[in-house]
Amino acid sequence: SEDDRALSFRLTTVSEAKIGATSTTLNVNIGRADLNAIKADKKLCISRGSCYISLESSFATDFNGNSVNPIGLSSSASLRLPDTFVSDNIGPVLISADLDMNKGELVLYWDEPVQPNDLDPTKIIVRPNSTSVDIVTLSDSATTSSEGVVVTISLSDTDLNELKAAIFASNASDTLIELKEGAILDIAVNNNNDQNPSQILNASNALQVDKYVKDTTGAVLEAFTIHLGKNELLLTFDEPMLTLNFTHSKILIAG
Fold it and tell me: What is the mean pLDDT of the chain?
């Protein structure tokens, strides 16, 4: 069983299994969850020499109802290496994203485990559509997420305020994510552009965010300067302000 060997994984999901009427080859499509679990293990199936197979007798039967001969992992003599091994050479695909303007978080969901430590925020662009020149490129935002399929980016004050001041990113429909090459790496060190060109998230096929949370938090006054000689009052807030909504009679100077 899988307990006989320190490094093993029992398949739990299979999306499809095909075999011809007289074929001796069974083509099994490994389920996404299982495939990601295997990819996330940095010691399992990283090469042909670290990828064995075990089959229980109840796995399948032949045309006469006979069970297959079991292959165990407890005995080195019965270990079976793959006749052909192809390593992961396809980069991660961003499948969805959420933006929370209240929390200041951009959450990215990938089709396979990625390495958040290798995230380059300067390769992430937020745009309203595929042709607009008005874009926001992240700068110093960061993540503390662990390796996996979900990466939560804490937007820096600079990046969050730039998004708040933009003429877009006001709802899901005008908030699209574009990724430059090298935005992130998967466990096998493939970057996000190491894949089919149709899945590369450039300007022409940027990904619209799925969930969008609007900014409903009021601005906070962080500092103010009063210069009586210049008749000047300087108010500094924690986020961009609209001067069109300024009402001077709502300011009270007290002593």
Answer: 90
Task: Give residue 244's Cα distance to chain centre.
Answer: 38
Tokens, residue 30: 């490994």
**What percentage of residues in the chain have a pLDDT greater than 70?**
93
Residue 90 and residue 213: Cα distance in Å, rounded?
Answer: 32
Structure pTM? 0.84
* Number of C-beta neighbours around residue 54 at 10 A: 19
Q: In angstroms, rounded to a whole number, what is the distance separating the alpha carbons of residues 138 and 38?
A: 32
Biggest distance spanned by C-alpha atoms of the chain:
100
Q: Nearest Cα to 183, choosing from 135, 138, 134?
A: 138
Give the N- to C-terminal CA distance of the chain in Å, as an integer. 79
3-state secondary structure 204-241: HHCEECCEEECCCCCCCEEEEEEECCCCEEEEEECCCC
Buried-state track 148-174, b at ≥16 Cβ within 10 A, e below 16: ebebebebbeebbbbbbebebbbebeb
- In this structure, what DSSP letter does residue 83 have? S
Write the pLDDT tens digit of every residue in 139-166.
999 999 999 999 999 999 999 999 999 9
Report the pLDDT value the prediction gives residue 21, as an integer from 0 to 100: 60
Distance CA 21, CA 13 (A): 24
Backbone angles phi, psi at 224, to 5 degrees: -145, 150
CB-CB contact of 192 with 147 (8 Å): no
Contacts made by residues 34-38, CB under 8 angstroms, sequence distance 24+: 34/9, 35/112, 36/112, 36/113, 36/149, 37/9, 38/9
